[in-house]
Amino acid sequence: xxxxxxxxxxxxxxxxxxxxxxxxxxxxxxxxxxxxxxxxxxxxxxxxxxxxxxxxxxxxxxxxxxxxxxxxxxxxxxxxxxxxxxxxxxxxxxxxxxxxxxxxxxxxxxxxxxxxxxxxxxxxxxxxxxxxxxxxxxxxxxxxxxxxxxxxxxxxxxxxxxxxxxxxxxxxxxxxxxxxxxxxxxxxxxxxxxxxxxxxxxxxxxxxxxxxxxxxxxxxxxxxxxxxxxxxxxxxxxxxxxxxxxxxxxxxxxxxxxxxxxxxxxxxxxxxxxxxxxxxxxxxxxxxxxxxxxxxxxxxxxxxxxxxxxxxxxxxxxxxxxxxxxxxxxxxxxxxxxxxxxxxxxxxxxxxxxxxxxxxxxxxxxxxxxxxxxxxxxxxxxxxxxxxxxxxxxxxxxxxxxxxxxxxxxxxxxxxxxxxxxxxxxxxxxxxxxxxxxxxxxxxxxxxxxxxxxxxxxxxxxxxxxxxxxxxxxxxxxxxxxxxxxxxxxxxx
Amino acid sequence: xxxxxxxxxxxxxxxxxxxxxxxxxxxxxxxxxxxxxxxxxxxxxxxxxxxxxxxxxxxxxxxxxxxxxxxxxxxxxxxxxxxxxxxxxxxxxxxxxxxxxxxxxxxxxxxxxxxxxxxxxxxxxxxxxxxxxxxxxxxxxxxxxxxxxxxxxxxxxxxxxxxxxxxxxxxxxxxxxxxxxxxxxxxxxxxxxxxxxxxxxxxxxxxxxxxxxxxxxxxxxxxxxxxxxxxxxxxxxxxxxxxxxxxxxxxxxxxxxxxxxxxxxxxxxxxxxxxxxxxxxxxxxxxxxxxxxxxxxxxxxxxxxxxxxxxxxxxxxxxxxxxxxxxxxxxxxxxxxxxxxxxxxxxxxxxxxxxxxxxxxxxxxxxxxxxxxxxxxxxxxxxxxxxxxxxxxxxxxxxxxxxxxxxxxxxxxxxxxxxxxxxxxxxxx
Lengths: 493, 429
Description:
The structure holds two protein chains of two kinds. Chain A is α+β, with helices and mostly antiparallel strands.
């Protein structure tokens, strides 16, 4: 029986969900607070014309927009509709429950955040601007921000700028520790691009309104039909009298992650000095690769455990079950093995079933690095590692708790991942999760016996973050059309 | 080594005393191991224990069911030792708690003997009781965990002092054996873990085969009844689907569930719900729980429950004259991963039992749909999960997988091993 692959309504979906705008090398993110709900609604109504949709391949600039729960409240979305959003989004990333799930305590405590935390101005709107180069971005930002004051919004803090780090030899994008990044992105099945089936995922996992990996529709926020008198929103497919404000939208998770590049390489350097106390760059890079799961070029350890092989820098068609069940090639607790266990997450089901379950916990990454690079390569002797740098981590999930939060809680920050006892993710894991005496170790499975590293310092800390809802373009128009709620709507005749 | 049993005590709370009782139990729960009232760390052979208050509820006819207190523990036999400990060592704590319950001996009549009578009078059986690995005692779990810690430290010291290069697995294993020989408090590891008593195992085997035989003999009866049962099932399923609407996850809130109840390594889950009305459902759920218990006792007793290896213990208890089912479990990982495991691996099993509960997502043919509607199922769980005021675990830093690994580590310490087997064994560290 042929399964029908539904067409995506690309004109209604915001472009960033479907593509990362790799050709637009400059990007910045603007956090806004809504001062005047009515003015903001008018501003949104015109902004909707500027939003880049998923059908357009932008050549000069691109614009996308998302909202926090507080933002939707301030815009005037009615309470009944607000209650149809999932708990994670409604509570926000800094609620007590979410902090426990995400491990945001100590250095990562939201009280210390530069934005999005309880001590800073509440974030309402996220404006994302992309342009082909920095000068174009500047001009673009100028023109968009001219509409802020009449639009009843003010910018919160500094614009979040980004840096495109490129590997000098391969031209591929890197992150600040020096590793090629974004090699593994799930492919959306309905977009028809070819790739390994193991890595192809149903659109519903990232875009609301389409079947997810359970072949069901993820619950979408809705509004009563009476509250959409202009009929901007589509009818909800499952409930009558109700309109679908979530369809063609998605949830955007944003976490600004500061990377202490100096501390990372210094720690590894101290651990890998040779018998005379001299640095051993090769051993240092090898240990770093073991922690990541890929070599700096991006080549996966599973395919080339002994040495880097830049030819395999983009290699993403591999599994763990057949080639590396014990973790001898790629350690069981390595970063990429935790964030995407592929066919190796369950010891009792076969690889096929494990893989299909694994597809229910994928995220679509769209973030970019920020801050000046430390050096052109991973050789950082004598480099100046001061200053702020890191990753603006951004990802899309149709179901925040089953996808993003699951990866964070059950894979990254779990000292018991893969049958381990007290190791969390060596790059970004929580070094002091609840209930475990110490979780700052890293185990490298090996023959005859494992090698253990202890007392890993914290290399990455959270500087800011929030859960956003990126609506469809129609939904943005709907938000722009809201009338202030009158008290007697809600009492049905 | 001994097998494990579940003790469940159910007592009605005196009118108006629920809040006081809740305060006391929350004090216990805040420091469950060493609190002044009932320090669980002083009880021996207890794997898990909890106090749960069942708030006043409505049955399917909208009549009130008065609040009760549940005490549930999973212990190594003999049960009598556990009861004796409770009424003597922690007798005063019991008094403080149960004085809020009906029928408890008055202030001048509280002795170990009268306390024991009270507990026995209020014991309720579990219709199904799951044990991850029958025969593994608290002592064995603690010992093997200490052993593992010692071996890991030993390997760390060796690694710091010298290189492994050139050593094969057998040589490393021999070094470990030598290390243990030199540790007086680890010499017990030189012998394998004691097995379950032969007499007990024999009785279990006989029970298993006799039951199968009886079922075989009854097969013609089952075949006769089956079509009738299926017709009734479809009738009931269609009726239930028409009467109940699908629960939305976003409209359920975690509400009063305390934040510390969603822990990281081990977690507990307590839930209660009404059984659907009618003799068909009452009979079906009893039959299924019996079948479930049979499979737990004789089949799923060595670490894995149909693909799920994260559950330590679980109980299903019918209460209030069969009107409600109480479900209690002790498991590993977050609540989200627990629910996902069930949806992904044993949805059919959940459907079979819980579809007899009011409000369960619509099933077809008992095992289809139901929990496969991931969000509706999670909404159902969220609606029926109740707070647990006090929860104790004897090994909260270990997952079931860790415990199993520790046991296999100990089991493989001695005896001849080929290089390959020794290498595989060493990977346990």
